[in-house]
């Protein structure tokens, strides 16, 4: 258990979902101990991602307060250790994601903020 820190991002068709997904993907490339979980594939019973969620610590990276990754993972008997609300984080930092399907320069700044927050949470939950 806990070989990887698993990040499950929002898959909503809104700018916050887009920056959530990019942040999670970037971190999974940049860190050997971080893996992404495709929440849509999990909902569709793709066993690889369900197993990742069952066997590792999971952070939900949510575009809003609905926490869809956690809701979906609960249906697979998996749990989320921590939920990050990207909408709230951006608002607290006077930032706003803009694009739904393409990242622009502003959204890259949002991605960097989210990545920093995820790494901070990683340390807070004493996963390192």
Furnish the topology, listing elements before pairings.
Layout: E1 5-9, H1 15-30, E2 34-37, H2 39-43, H3 47-55, E3 57-62, H4 68-74, E4 82-85, H5 86-92, H6 105-124
Parallel strand pairs: 1-2, 1-3, 3-4
Helix pairs in contact: 1-6
What does this structure look like?
It contains 6 helices and 4 strands. By secondary structure, the protein is α/β, with parallel strands linked by helices. It has one domain. It has a 4-stranded parallel beta sheet with strand order 2-1-3-4, with helices on both faces.
Defining key terms:
about 130 residues; alpha/beta; 4-stranded parallel sheet; 6 helices
Q: Number of DSSP helices?
A: 6
- Count of all domains: 1
Can you tell me the overall shape? Answer: globular
Class inferred from helices and paired strands: alpha/beta
Query: Order of strands across the biggest sheet?
Result: 2-1-3-4
Largest sheet: 4 strands, parallel
Radius of gyration (CA) equals 13 Å
Mean pLDDT: 94
* CA distance, first residue to last residue: 14 Å
Tally of extended strands? Answer: 4
SSE succession: EHEHHEHEHH
Low-confidence stretches: none
């Amino acid at each position: 258990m806990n070989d990887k820190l698993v990040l499950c991002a929002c898959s909503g068709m809104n700018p916050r979902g887009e920056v959530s997904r990019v942040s999670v993907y970037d971190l999974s490339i940049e860190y050997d101990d971080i893996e992404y979980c495709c929440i849509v594939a999990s909902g569709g019973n793709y066993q690889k991602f369900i197993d990742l969620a069952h066997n590792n610590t999971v952070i939900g990276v949510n575009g809003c307060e609905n926490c869809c990754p956690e809701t979906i993972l609960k249906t697979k008997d998996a749990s989320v250790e921590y939920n990050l609300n990207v909408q709230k984080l951006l608002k607290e930092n006077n930032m706003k994601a803009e694009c739904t399907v393409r990242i622009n320069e502003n959204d890259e700044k949002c991605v960097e903020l989210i990545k920093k927050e995820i790494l901070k949470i990683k340390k807070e939950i004493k996963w390192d």
